[in-house]
Write a structure and sequence with these properties.
2 copies of one chain form a homodimer.
Chain A: E1 4-9, E2 24-28, H1 33-42, E3 47-50, H2 54-63, E4 68-73, E5 76-77, H3 92-95, E6 99-103, H4 107-113, E7 119-123, H5 128-135, E8 140-145, H6 154-170, E9 175-177, H7 179-192, H8 197-206, H9 208-215, H10 219-225, E10 235-237, E11 244-246
Parallel strand pairs in A: 1-8, 1-9, 2-7, 2-8, 3-6, 4-6
Antiparallel strand pairs in A: 4-5, 7-10, 10-11
Chain lengths: 252, 252
């Protein structure tokens, strides 16, 4: 029986020279990029295109006038953009059928760091179970936490740990974890003790990312981000086309 | 009442541009450098001098023929050295009154990274309580995990979490933690659930550092490293003289 291997990286920089080409990557930026992208895809956006710079997004937007521009700098909506980085700004009435050109500070960089993986999935608490079902048959999984401005953030680590815990509980084969995966799982198991949706939200509010979001007056976004399994959808980033689509609708 | 602040760094590289000059640093390399140094100091070595290279240690040794050369490369004792990196090699009969010129792969680098701190303490499970008593009145503490070859290792993170947990329990003032400190504390609290000396040793054996030590056939070193509060001693590295001495005998 083949071993399943899960390697967690608490920051993209910790990937170092790791070769992702033999595995599947999972990108985490709970507050708020990957939570927001999951909302957009669950609400039937055609696709989300993650872009590194504001200029790139504006250039692409000029070429595709029907597209929406979304994202943040310093947590705030960008001048001239249609949407910010709050999941609440991405209801079906706004995004259905739309291409969304999306740029955020940390999440987009984490996706770029995973570019060489066979497949790239987008993870949030709102799609935890759907994601883990998708990963059930993958032999080598790289889970990459975006962090905030080069610092490890607890909210991303907790989700990484939840993924490790979920996959370990479901696995029929032996699982190998790197130390960062073990640490993330420890953190999640400690958080899970007596966990309710409220206490997960409370923990997220204490994290570095959470404090940033509170400072922006967006507490509601944290409550949304802490809602486990709100959606049964897995956004998938195609490394060639660089578009994120519902994994059920995307070509491999 | 002044706030106490504890910042944990899961690797020296994660210090980034952090300015340590306003605080006290704690260096952790549980398997095995800081455990071994604590044994040497508890067994009345005169001092331990942490050196980056084998050549440096040999040069210093040539100048001080009474000194002992200790340390490892690839976990093994170095050719021409008196002692390796196993705590069992540092009994009082060997080290009492001796100067020890000591070089290890990861621990020494972590100490170098802390060079600008006001004071530098050496931490291990074998001196956890003594260390925490020493830190009780410090307002800004930087806890730096050595890791192994640039990778985060669980055994160092568990000790960092134990220090955070211990200081938080004892504190009479509010405590601020960075996210890495919160994650380390989560990992320790999860490990502590039902903890016995055996299960701490077992956890250390599963870690990256632990697997390395097992590969070297030094399982006993892990059991020693997992012995909580074996000693009531805190080795202190003087940033000027670059010597580690018992904090009770060292000048500030």
């Amino acid at each position: 029986m083949k071993t399943k291997r899960i390697d967690v990286f608490l920051l993209p920089a910790l990937l170092g020279e790791t070769d992702l080409s033999g595995g599947v990557a999972v990108v985490i930026d709970v507050l708020r990029a990957t939570t927001t992208i999951t909302h957009a895809i669950a609400h039937h956006a055609d696709c989300v295109v993650p872009l590194l710079s504001v200029d790139q997004a504006k250039e692409e937007g000029a070429k595709t006038p029907s597209a929406l521009l979304g994202g943040e700098r310093g947590g705030q909506k960008i001048d001239g953009f249609d949407l910010g980085n709050s999941p609440a700004e991405y209801p079906e009435s706004t995004v259905r059928g739309k291409k969304i050109l999306f740029t955020t500070t940390n999440g987009t960089k984490a996706m770029q760091a995973c570019r060489s993986a066979q497949e790239i999935f987008i993870a949030a608490f709102v799609n935890l179970t759907a994601l883990c079902n998708q990963l059930a048959d993958c032999e080598q999984i790289f889970v990459v936490c975006a962090g905030t401005e080069g610092e490890i953030t607890r909210e991303d680590v907790l989700l990484a740990g939840a993924i490790v815990d979920h996959l370990s509980a479901d696995a029929t084969q032996p699982i190998e974890l790197n130390d960062q995966a073990q640490i993330a799982a420890d953190a999640w198991l400690e958080a899970k003790t007596g966990l309710t949706a409220t206490s997960l939200a409370d923990r997220l509010k204490q994290s570095r990312g959470g404090r940033n979001v509170l400072r922006l007056g967006q507490e509601n976004d944290i409550d949304i981000a802490a809602t486990l399994d709100k959606f049964n959808v897995v956004p998938k980033l195609n490394p060639q086309s660089w578009e994120i689509r519902d994994s059920r609708n995307s070509t491999p």
